[in-house]
Design goal:
This protein is α/β, with parallel strands linked by helices. The chain has 2 domains: about 5-15 and about 85-220, Rossmann fold (3-Layer(aba) Sandwich); about 15-85. It has helices spanning about 15-30, 50-60, 65-85, 90-100, 115-125, 150-160, 170-180, 210-220, and strands at about 5, 105-110, 135, 165-170, 185-190, 200-205. Strands 3-2-1-4-5-6 form a 6-stranded parallel β-sheet, sandwiched between helices. Strand 4 (about 165-170), helix 7 and strand 5 form a beta-alpha-beta unit. Helix 2 crosses helix 3 (about 65-85). The two termini are about 10 Å apart.
């Protein structure tokens, strides 16, 4: 039976959540002259640029030009990314290589970030997108995580049932999306502490702890 391993990108493959927070702060400073504490961005982890911008706008009672604000966020993020060093988390390349070589498994990406941003992030992490059988971004969906749309679409494109898929996530919203899609989920504590990710089927502190055996066990449980 074929299975799928679906990765979120930001906070799972690469340590980009702090970059995104700084980029959003810089965008709101530039456009609206306000300073947003970095901690306030945590609530939007795992979501799309649109959800992030609209959430902050509502919190600060701002009327924003959504297209302009998203563009500014993206521009500042790409600047942050360009200036950053090695962002890839330990164990990422190894587990992707192992599962990509396994005939029973297909590898995919399901990220709330836009395609341009995710392409730049993957390039910075030194990962070849040719390894992924499906690659969905925030540009491809209408409902952000915790809605399960992106994961259900990934399963559909792979022609698999959701129960044949295992997801790796780092955020509360991402875990909720995976479970709402009726997929098994491994949560990695790169962004949130383990207790916040309790809805996941497995919780690890690093992808170096994820093995083919763990993935097969989860897939069979599904």
């Amino acid at each position: 039976m074929p299975y799928a391993l679906l990765f979120d990108v930001d906070g799972v493959i690469a340590d980009t959540e702090p970059l995104s927070a700084r980029a959003a702060t810089a965008a709101f400073r530039e456009l609206y002259g306000i300073e947003i504490p970095l901690a306030e961005h945590l609530a939007y982890t795992g979501g799309t640029h649109k959800k992030h911008v609209l959430g902050l706008a509502a919190s600060y009672k701002l009327e924003v030009d959504l297209e302009e604000a998203i563009a500014a966020h993206k521009r500042h993020f790409l600047l942050e990314l360009d200036a950053a060093g090695d962002l890839r988390y330990p164990g990422v390349a190894e587990i992707i290589a192992l599962m990509a070589a396994d005939r029973d498994w297909r590898i995919g990406l399901a990220t709330g970030s836009g395609r341009e941003r995710s392409r730049a992030t993957l390039a910075k992490a030194g990962l070849d997108t040719a390894n992924f059988a499906v690659w969905l971004t925030g540009d491809d969906i209408t409902k952000a995580k915790p809605n399960p749309e992106i994961y259900l679409r990934a399963a559909s494109q792979l022609r698999l049932f959701p129960t044949q898929c295992v997801v790796i996530e780092d955020s509360v919203a991402g875990v909720a999306a995976a479970k709402a899609a009726h997929m098994r989920c491994i949560a990695v504590t790169n962004t949130y502490p383990g207790e916040a990710l309790h809805a996941a089927d497995r919780i690890v502190d690093s992808l170096a702890e994820v093995s083919p055996t763990m993935l097969y066990d989860l897939a069979v449980e599904g």
